Amino acid sequence: PYQGNLIRDAKERLDALSRKVTDKIQEEKEKTLSAITVSRKLLEDQDGFTSLEPNHQQKIVMPLDDLAAKVKGQRYISTIRQYETQIPGIVAEQKTVYQRLVNPEEKIEYIPVNRVRIMFDKKELKTVEEVDAYLQKLKEEMVRHIDQNRRITL
Hints:
This protein is mainly α and 154 residues long. Helix content is 70%, strand content 5%. It contains 4 helices and 2 strands; from the N terminus they run H-H-H-E-H-E.
């Protein structure tokens, strides 16, 4: 009798834990798929998108659609989160593709803001002066990218 209760209690706990993990996986999927949907809409809302040929429109949104399919089939939370971090880079790349389709003579490249890297000698900011110095470096680097005909996506 004691052993039977122990196994039954362990089974109940295992089932409860499995439900929690399944719920968390579903929550992460929904969050990532929502971010993909918002990003897809951002691409589709660009000026002139609807005037593109359907195959060009598909070419622009296809990477996000592919990512959504990967997310739907994924069962590991860490991988789903990793996919979510790829979205800004994909959007920037696809905006570059869009720009080249719409205006081929203008060589504009889009980069996500997280690709703007600066070298700063401190690992934490403790004073207002340090914040100002950090922001100045960040501004200089962003301006350098703009001068190189890049646009920074936020």
